[in-house]
Automatic annotation (TrEMBL):
Keyword Transmembrane included in the entry's annotation: yes
Gene Ontology terms for molecular function: glycosyltransferase activity
Presence of keyword RNA-binding: no
The Glycosyltransferase 2-like domain, residue ranges: 45-177
Species for this entry: Bizionia myxarmorum
Family: Belongs to the glycosyltransferase 2 family.
Ranges that cross the membrane: 6-25, 307-327, 339-363
Classification via InterPro entries: Glyco_trans_2-like, Nucleotide-diphossugar_trans
Protein's recorded name: Glycosyltransferase
Length: 370
């Protein structure tokens, strides 16, 4: 059959492309040994933007306050919260002199725009070196600031870290969320390692105040509801000014979404920013996703017809073995090894999930970050 012949050649091409992608791109992060620079103890401003986060502030802010670092301030941004977030911040500030509060009220031009609130917080920061996390995030170590800030240098102005999620036993949704986080981290950290940084995550990210204002802040994408982390890094990051920090003491961790609906809504906000990446990043990421989709689709169809099944099986094994080796090394670095037994299933679901999100965003898009 002509259709099966075409699918056969498509499968061979995309399977080969997938193997090459894993071995050329993703191996750069998976196999490289992490080197931790000597701590520099430079002054750091930790920036935390919160909107209706009173409970998370109570739970997680103490882990930031208790950091083992000699010179840091905490800039808490209350982004027009209508709960008791501001009161919680004020209570912490009363007890700790290194806490500064920026109270943001809704602005008609920037209503519910996190970038506007962050801009005010960055302006209020005392120090040039900024370290960002979210109100629902907890540094897993008291050396978080020390580990992340050690990567700053005269050449390195951006530090990309890893933000994971708490593990919930016997929860398939939790594994899906953590796998998506692991896979995304494997992509952006690998690209950064080969000199093509394209994004970071606001749960664990650092850059300088000078670079922020040199780029005119978020002005180029202020109209886009998300992207205060990935779009900004996509704009300013280069092969020479970006460093990667993945020592385990540098990780942050947060509570994942607990319902599928809330996770879908969260990812719908995040996915829209990818359309605004630099063309080279969109092409490389798009090709990888398209090859994933075609790999599974063509492989399943060809095997169901037993069409050259011996060849198909060989390429399937080659691709899955390459993937398993790379993902295993990556998961060990990021402490996500429990996901490995479900790797094929989680990957297949993620591909379908991303396709669904893409189609859904064409119809309906969220307008606010919370």
């Amino acid at each position: 059959m002509l259709i099966l012949d075409i699918l056969y050649y498509v499968f061979i091409i995309v399977a080969s492309f997938q193997v090459a992608y894993y071995l050329i791109f993703f191996s750069q992060f998976a196999f490289q040994k992490e080197t931790v620079p000597v701590p520099k103890n430079i002054p750091i401003s930790v920036i935390i933007c919160a909107k209706n986060e009173e409970e998370n502030l109570k739970e997680f802010l103490p882990s930031v306050i208790s950091q083992n670092y000699p010179n840091f301030e905490i800039v808490l941004i209350n982004d027009a919260s209508y709960d008791y977030s501001l009161e919680v911040m004020e209570d912490f500030a009363f007890k700790h002199s290194n806490i500064k509060i920026v109270n943001v009220r809704n602005n008609e031009a920037f209503w519910a725009n996190k970038k506007y609130a962050l801009t005010l917080g960055i302006k209020a920061a005392t120090h040039n070196h900024l370290l960002f996390t979210d109100a629902d995030c907890k540094p897993i170590s008291s050396n978080w600031i020390s580990q992340m800030s050690a990567h700053f240098s005269s050449e390195k102005h951006i530090v990309l870290g890893y933000g994971g999620y708490f593990k919930i036993k016997k929860s398939l949704l939790n594994k899906l969320i953590r796998f998506e986080t692991l896979f995304t981290a494997m992509q952006y950290l690998s690209f950064a390692k080969i000199g093509m940084p394209y994004m970071g995550v606001g749960r664990n990210l650092a850059y300088t105040k000078d670079d922020f204002f040199k780029a005119s802040g978020f002005m180029k994408h202020m109209h886009i509801r998300s992207g205060d982390d990935d779009l900004f890094i996509n704009e300013i990051a280069t092969a020479t000014n970006t460093s990667v920090c993945v020592s385990k003491d540098s990780f942050t961790i947060s509570h994942p979404e607990t319902t599928f609906k809330s996770w879908v809504n969260q990812k719908k906000r995040h996915v829209t920013t990818a359309n605004h990446y630099k063309p080279v990043h969109k092409v490389l990421l798009g090709l990888f996703y398209a090859s994933q989709l075609l790999f599974w689709l063509s492989g399943i169809i060809l095997l169901s017809f037993l069409f050259y099944w011996e060849v198909i099986l060989c390429f399937l094994l080659l691709r899955f073995i390459s993937q398993f080796i790379i993902v295993t090394y990556t998961a060990k670095k990021l402490d996500e090894q429990d996901l490995l037994p479900l790797l094929p299933f989680l990957e297949f679901f993620l591909i379908i999930f991303q396709l669904t999100i893409f189609i859904s965003n064409l119809v309906s898009k969220p307008k606010h970050w919370k």
